[in-house]
Amino acid sequence: MEIKKIEIGLATLYLGDCAEVLPTLGQVDAVVTDPPYGVVNRESDGLRSLDVGVADIVDFDEQWIASEFARLANSVYIWCGTEQVSGYRKALVDAGMTTRLCVWEKTNPSPMNGQHLWLSSIETCVFGRRKGAVFNEHCASPVWRTATQPKEFHPTAKPISLMEVQIKASTNDGQIVLDPFMGSGTTGVAAVQMGRKFIGIEREPKYFEIACKRIEDAQRQEKLF
Fold first, then answer.
1. In this predicted structure, what is the pLDDT of residue 122?
2. Residue 181 near residue 36 (C-beta atoms within 8 A)
């Protein structure tokens, strides 16, 4: 697909496939991203919609993508399904990174099937770091407890506060955060609000336009204060 590039203040945003854009980019300080898990879309049980469309379709090479992240950044956070953890972790280890498994514990998980199973209340994130990379935490546990947010802009969006934790931990003011699966721009909003430069890539025009507006609004609000 044809790649479109837009610059909005601290943010550089690409409408296009990240597999085509990533090889053209220079070094960044951290990748913070939430690729499709490939586990959500399935037949509805009648209680709620279990189809989030393209937001859950894995049609990319996960090993290659993770190795590209490691090539570009000294710190990498990849949100993923439990089935993807081993593959992403191996790619980062093979690239010379030290890894940890991070966990988001949802304080308001869905009650679906709660009478039969433990609630589905956690999501996982693979963290990779090169020696010497920025790390602003000290003896902190990578288990983050916060509530899910209404799906106002995107069916699988993470809370802004969750992305802020990772950006704060692994970048300093003025450094560059990359999200190759930008979606509706949550990571970008968090980055620019914290004074970081941001590079985002999204191939779906609908979500790209939402991300542009959200990031522009976030920067406008920062200037007001």
1. 95
2. yes
Tell me, what DSSP letter sits at residue 55? G
pTM across the whole model: 0.90
Asked if residues 130 and 96 have their Cβ atoms less than 8 Å apart, the reply is: yes
pLDDT at 144 over 60: yes
CA–CA gap between residue 59 and residue 102 (Å, rounded): 24
User: Which of the four pLDDT bands, split at 50, 70 and 90, describes residue 155?
Assistant: confident
3-state secondary structure (DSSP) of residue 149: coil
Residue 106 CA to residue 90 CA, distance in Å, equals 26
The structure tokens 């980055």 sit at 191
CB 37 within 8 A of CB 80: yes
pLDDT at 167 (0 to 100)? 98
H helix intervals, the chain: 18-21, 62-72, 85-94, 160-170, 186-193, 205-224
Which tokens sit at 32? 């913070």
Question: Tokens at residue 207, please?
Answer: 């979500």
pLDDT at 41: 44
96: burial class by Cβ within 10 Å (0-12, 13-18, 19+)? exposed
Radius of gyration over alpha carbons of the chain, in Å?
17
- For the cut 50, the answer to whether the pLDDT of residue 163 exceeds it is yes
d(CA 105, CA 145): 5
